[in-house]
Amino acid sequence: MRSSSSSTARQSFWKKLTGQQRDVTKSLGALIAIFIFASLLSPAASDGSNIFLQWGNLTDILRQVSIVGIISLGMNFVILTAGIDLSVGSILALSSTVVALLLTRWQPEMGYAAQISIAIGAALLISTASGALSGTIIAIFDVQPFVVTLAGMIGIRGLAKWLSSNANVDVGFGQDVASLFAAIFRGKPMIIGFYVVLAAIFSVLLGRTVFGRYVRAVGDNERASLYAGLPVRSVKLWVYSLSGLLAGFAGVLYAAENHQGNPNSGVGYELDAIAAVVIGGTQLSGGKGTIAGTIIGTLMIGVLTNMLRLNNVDSNVEMIVKGAIILFAVAVQKQGKDVR
Amino acid sequence: MRNQSAMRFLFLALLAGAAISCNRSNSASTPEGKHQFFVAFSQANNAEPYRAAQNDLMTKLFAAAGDVKLVIADAQQDNSKQVAQVETFIRQRPDLLIVAPNERAALTAVMGEAMEQKIPVICLERDILQPNYTTLVRSDNVEIGRMAGNFIRDYLVAKYKQPKGNVVEIQGLLGVEAAINRHKGAAEVLQEYPDIKIVADPVADWIQARAKDRMTEVLRAQPSIDVVYAHNDPMAVGAYLAAKELGREREMIFVGVDGLGGPAGGIKKVQDRILAATFVYPLCVDKTVEIALKILRDPTFHPDKEYTVAPQLVTPSNAAQLYQQSTVTP
User: Fold this and answer.
1) Tell me, what's the pLDDT at B22?
2) Among A325, A332, A289, which residue's Cα sits nearest to residue A73?
């Protein structure tokens, strides 16, 4: 069964697709297993009900994974081209800072709706531009993505700190425009809704469009893609821009949720996003992986973290368990490769 | 292949389960029949010595109470993580929730959610943007400032038989609560004595090296200084070093604030006679546990909205004893 399933995996496009579906099904099975496990281990509430399965708790999990989840969608595209984007945590910080600054320090003569739109638009624009800059350098000068986005990670955080004098830009709870912005966007349905909608859009973009096929092709074999006349450079430029845009979205939601623009936020989020992508079955060597897998990877981390927290396990153990899952996920992927 | 990977995840899940069951057996070892209160404490960052000391003392005091199961979650200085941890605590419906907020704005909404769920909330040490707590236990930097002002006046009266003299005030980061209020409290006291003059008030951003530089400039300009009051101990030490370099350290005394324990802390500096005095910014945990036990055990008890814990004066006469205490209880 082993050799037959994997030796046919690369023979035709159709069979490759089923291979992907098989991977996703496998991950989904693991997620369901963890879910059942979490509900069995969940402590009971005072009325005897299962805390883990409470609607409020399940939506807590979704809300808690949404911000890294949104970042990991963009990261998925980048990794599919065999790249990496270390700058997303810093872009989140920059975006949260820009949106909060424009809402608290800028007093234009315009309506609240207009000012909120401009603030969000500016944050998304500067985030996309940050990603596009990395993408341009990577695509045109052919520098390793790790190095370029490492530079971005440092430089963009510096920019966020400089803009805010390294101080948090607090958003209040009053009647002003900034408070209104937070009140609108901090709600659970809003944050989860953004994640769901963006996940759907990017899933279609990867699975159903020519662009998605190009992304995979570039990661699978860049030289062959180039010879086949694919726009390799612009594909690269686009994936880093999209990654920046999504990190910017995450930053706007972060600012609303935490009532502040924080130039020191999002530290390590790039690694959480990479972890979610890897657990979801996307290979760092590029070409292979799905948005569905990444979403499942994100949820797996979320459910496991929640399970441990509900049982009051030391927060440092969370990190140990997270580390263990990444290794197991990679071990499963490696097994798939070995039998080819 | 599917079976194998399923096995691996099962193994992983068992591993997580083992971690949980280890944890459970700890909490299960309590005397049966007695009602156990569940207190959840969300700590901003265990890595800060001040906060680690809070955790240790709270664990000790609740253990001594006998009927409380305390769970501490460390947010590791991450607002999002602390919000998530508080949310999870809310689902567990503790009898009492204690939160030491990492930052004001970020924790305000989720603490409000706990209040809506009728969970009593004690806000520890740092205020939030809206009063989303049952009670706030804090210390008071204005009071620290007042105590410093009184100490300075008493010293000058002892020196000159009347309240007069020249004072240098070295300020922390401008606009920060601690710096504003440590100044305000001292000013309240010293303003009443026209002959006590603040001859210089440089800003040194809490940093020892910067205080040394600023103090050197002040020393060049001021021929006579009686007292240096710095908003924290490291800046007081920096001022001392500047004066020592110019051979003037015996002309004046140095007063700091913070009074941390350990060999690098302010208490040791008082013991070594570098500082004449410092003021311990208290952990606030004794009061928190006292109020917590009242809330848990007495349903008719209504706490005040706010409790202020008095700071403690450290002088050479009690420094050795306080140093001992601060190092014995880690």
Assistant:
1) 53
2) A289
Domain ranges of chain B: 30-133, 141-280
Determine the pLDDT at residue B33: 60
A30, B5: Cβ pair inside 8 Å? yes
Give pLDDT tens digits for B266-308.
999 999 999 999 999 888 999 999 999 999 999 999 999 999 9
* Phi and psi torsions of B122, nearest 5°: -105, 125
Q: Residue B98: which residues within 8 A CB-CB, separation 6 or more?
A: B39, B40, B41, B42, B58, B121, B122, B124, B288, B292
* Nearest of A98, A97, A88, A38 to residue A68 by alpha carbon: A88
Whether the predicted interface score ipTM is above 0.85: no
Structure tokens that stand for B280 in this block: 């311990």
CATH no. of B141-280:
3.40.50.2300
Question: Chain B residues with CB inside 8 Å of A262's CB?
Answer: 79, 103
DSSP B284-305: -HHHHHHHHHHHHH-TT----S
CA distance A19 to A24: 9
Structural element, H or E, at residue B267:
helix B266-271
Within 8 A by CB and 6+ apart from A104, the residues are: A169, A170, A171, A176, A178
Classified as helix, coil or strand, A23 is: helix
Min Cα distance B237 → chain A (Å) is 26
Structural domains of chain A, with CATH: 51-338 (1.10.3470)
pTM: 0.77
Q: Of A105, A177, A167, which is closest to residue B175 (Cα–Cα)?
A: A167
When CB atoms are compared, the residue of A45, A60, A186 closest to B93 is A45
DSSP state letter for B203: B
Chain B partners within 8 Å of A279 (Cβ): none
CATH architecture of B30-133: 3-Layer(aba) Sandwich (3.40)
Cα first-last separation, chain B: 52
Contacts 24+ apart (CB under 8 A), A331-339: A331/B8, A332/A26, A332/A281, A332/B5, A332/B8, A333/A281, A333/A283, A335/B1, A335/B4, A335/B5, A336/A6, A336/A23, A336/B1, A339/A2, A339/A3, A339/A6, A339/B1
Interatomic CA distance for residues A169 and A156, integer angstroms: 17
Average confidence (pLDDT) over B180-206: 94
What pLDDT score does A14 carry? 47
For B63, counting Cβ atoms within 10 Å of its Cβ (0-12 exposed, 13-18 middle, 19+ buried), the class is exposed
pLDDT class for B8, splitting at 50, 70, 90?
Answer: low
Local confidence band at A18 (pLDDT 50, 70, 90 cut-offs): low
Alpha carbons A165 and B120: distance in angstroms, whole number: 37
CB pairs under 8 A between A and B: 128
Taking CB atoms and an 8 Å cutoff, what residues of chain B touch A26? 2, 5
Kindly report, residue by residue over B13-35, the tens digit of the pLDDT. 666 666 665 555 444 344 556 78
Q: What is the chain B residue with the closest CA to A279?
A: B9
Per residue in B59-95, pLDDT (tens digit) is 999 999 999 999 999 998 889 999 999 999 999 999 9
Q: What is the pLDDT of residues A28-87, one digit of tens each?
A: 888 999 999 999 998 887 778 888 999 989 999 999 999 999 999 999 999 999 999 999
